[in-house]
């Protein structure tokens, strides 16, 4: 397949992915907007106003958690887009449309991951717009903000694909989000600074990759972070390389899709 | 010149240890119309799955239009159009979208794909349904959509796994015409079917696969000429008291006014009537007991099953 043909194939997968989540926007785009609006009202305004700003580097609680909540929506949506799209392609069999075609595996991977990233960033943008009703956002480092968000989205979209490859039932595609993803994001410093924790739990928190993403993003927006931004970016990149290689290997071997 | 398809010593053992193909070899010439026959579970779909990159082979070689599936997979894939046995659409996707996507996966841009999709949907009488989701199509329409999808990138080799299963007689005939025209236009066609009349009607060459082995691979003509006897059913005008005696063919009485006649290929069908006439038996209608290919098929499969049993017990 020539490079031009490969680009046509990639464009096709991306269009197909965007059409897929747009067709079911009530399940894919609307819920995160509503959930996050509730978070802003309850944690930000109601409870947040009673929280001492010394816990949040001197920022009001809502300002402190907005970056984390945006990040959380991007993570969840990138992940769940790819996991459900790829799993249903496998389940209904239309993954075969791609498997019989000369589209190389790299393009298939980039296409599905790209679909997840587009949904993640779209939801991220919507949640950001919603947050502007509750607080002003004054982005300190726009480039770092965008790059952190983008790379995080890529990482979790890729993770979603690996989950889908192994999933054998619809239950399997919700196990990881419920038992791994949500705990990691909640414990990843979305709602608090890890400085509040005891030294032991501070160290434990450093094992959690989500911590680096939330903090990198918070640094981009607020200019404060528990972690150095370079370490954050390096960790995200390392994870992307590892997960992408795993996903490529699985697709190449045909795990879960070719008998 | 390279073949449309060349399979050498192809084996497949599935993950659960079941061996579905036992080292089969097969070749199909360019431009051929080829039937792959076999009972349920014989290994047809497994073979087709390997050819179209949906199943990993255990060993052996597959070559498509001169492209080796191991070393030139992308080129080989571009040659093939596949109509799988099971529906495999995204059922929430509109009909036209399904075709445009499939075209894109082969590098065909959207504007060109639209032109081709229109042409194919019209030919296969699906144009009215282009905006419908695949889940809103009837079974026969879905089959036709799978054919359109397989042709959108203009393949050289079209492989159809039971394309007419669940298709009504009228549509089946028009599908046959459609496939014949494609073949006349130079596209090699391989199909599997359980309607032997279909194979007899369409195909020039044939392979019969049984329990993972190819037990026959020849031309349709040569195969049919193997048939030594043919069996006819005769409906009689009046009930019959006793069977006439003859050693030219075997006569059996099914009920009072139905006879079964087994005739050797060397004899003429006229002799049946001559003999019956002399006994004053009048025939109101005559038909073949079964499709001739069907008899042969059953014979070959039984023969092969018998052989393997003997091997095992020996
Ligand atoms: N994924 C699989 N895992 C294990 N065994 C399989 C698998 N797919 C097929 N088989 C077995 O391989 C054998 C051949 O199956 P295959 O689907 O190739 O038959 P077929 O000739 O296409 O039959 P049919 O006419 O019913 O479509 C069968 O015994 C089947 O049970
Ligand atoms: Mg089959």
Automatic annotation (TrEMBL), chain A:
Record has Transmembrane helix as a keyword: yes
GO (cellular component) term, any one: ATP-binding cassette (ABC) transporter complex
Domain ABC transmembrane type-2 span(s) in chain numbering: 23-254
Superkingdom, natural source: Bacteria
Pfam families linked: ABC2_membrane
Family indicated by similarity: Belongs to the ABC-2 integral membrane protein family.
Protein name listed in UniProt: Transport permease protein
Organism: Leucothrix pacifica
From TrEMBL, chain B:
Keyword presence, Acyltransferase: no
PROSITE patterns, per the entry: ABC_TRANSPORTER_1, ABC_TRANSPORTER_2
SMART domains referenced in this protein's UniProt entry, alphabetically: AAA
Entry superkingdom: Bacteria
Family matches, as InterPro entries: AAA+_ATPase, ABC_transporter-like_ATP-bd, ABC_transporter-like_CS, ABC_transporter_ATP-binding, P-loop_NTPase
Keyword annotations of the record: ATP-binding, Nucleotide-binding, Transport
Pfam families registered for this protein in UniProt: ABC_tran
Molecular function per GO: ATP binding; ATP hydrolysis activity
Domain ABC transporter stretches: 5-236
Name the UniProt record assigns to this protein: ABC transporter
